[in-house]
Amino acid sequence: MESRHSSAPTAIQRSSRWLRWRPSGMCPSSRICRLRMHSSDKSVYKTLVRVSIRSVNSIASVTAAFIKHYNWNRVAFISNTGASAYERIIAFETAFRANGINVSKKILFEESMNMNDMVNSGQMEEIRSTSRIIIVMFSSVRDMTSLFREATEKAGLS
């Protein structure tokens, strides 16, 4: 009888098949890699990683596989406050820890913030000085992703 364990792909290997990524979109230190749960315009998000799955744990696993593939071992995580955002952060931190990826910085923006609040909070400068690989995931309560993108442009991060 053949052992299923020896030839079965790991969760990371299975998850890696779902990655869609353009090799020209490598993230130089002046760019931010963006991960969104919903589709968006490739011309706006040139370094976008797209996944075609819905479960937060699966998205976290795919993201960890992507980061591990490029031998990145430190990332920053940006999200909003709130219960659903907290659940996502826990799922991502668990997947990252299992793959030897360190979350060096975690920044949470209040859901009520606008673009100017984000820039004036000093967090953008902190992102610039401490982080190179950044995972951005906002819940869909508001379109904070586009506000954050505008804030990165205003702060000179993109």
Describe the structure.
This protein has one domain: Response regulator (Rossmann fold, 3-Layer(aba) Sandwich). The chain is built from 7 helices and 5 strands, in the order H-H-E-E-H-E-H-E-H-H-E-H. Helix 4 links the parallel strand 3 and strand 4. Helix 3 crosses helix 4. The radius of gyration is 16 Å and the shape is globular.
Main attributes of the structure:
alpha/beta; Rossmann fold; 3-stranded parallel beta sheet; disordered N terminus
Indicate the topology.
Elements (H helix, E strand, L loop, with lengths): L3 H4 L3 H6 L17 E2 L12 E2 L6 H14 L4 E7 L2 H16 L3 E8 L5 H6 L2 H8 L3 E3 L7 H11 L4
Parallel strand pairs: 1-2, 3-4, 3-5
Order of helices and strands: HHEEHEHEHHEH
Main beta sheet, described? Answer: 3 strands, parallel
- CATH overall fold name: Rossmann fold
Q: What is the general shape? A: globular
Count of helical regions: 7
Low-confidence stretches: 1-39
Give the CATH superfamily: Response regulator
Indicate the CATH class: Alpha Beta
- Please identify, by name, the CATH architecture: 3-Layer(aba) Sandwich
Distance between the termini: 55 Å
Helix content estimate: 40-55%
**CA-based gyration radius:** 16 Å
Spatially, the strands of the biggest sheet line up as: 4-3-5
- Overall average pLDDT: 74
Estimated structural class: alpha/beta
Number of domains: 1
Give the amount of beta strand, in percent.
5-15%
Tally of strands: 5
Protein name: Receptor ligand binding region domain-containing protein
Keywords: Membrane, Transmembrane, Transmembrane helix
Organism: Pristionchus mayeri
Pfam families: ANF_receptor (PF01094)
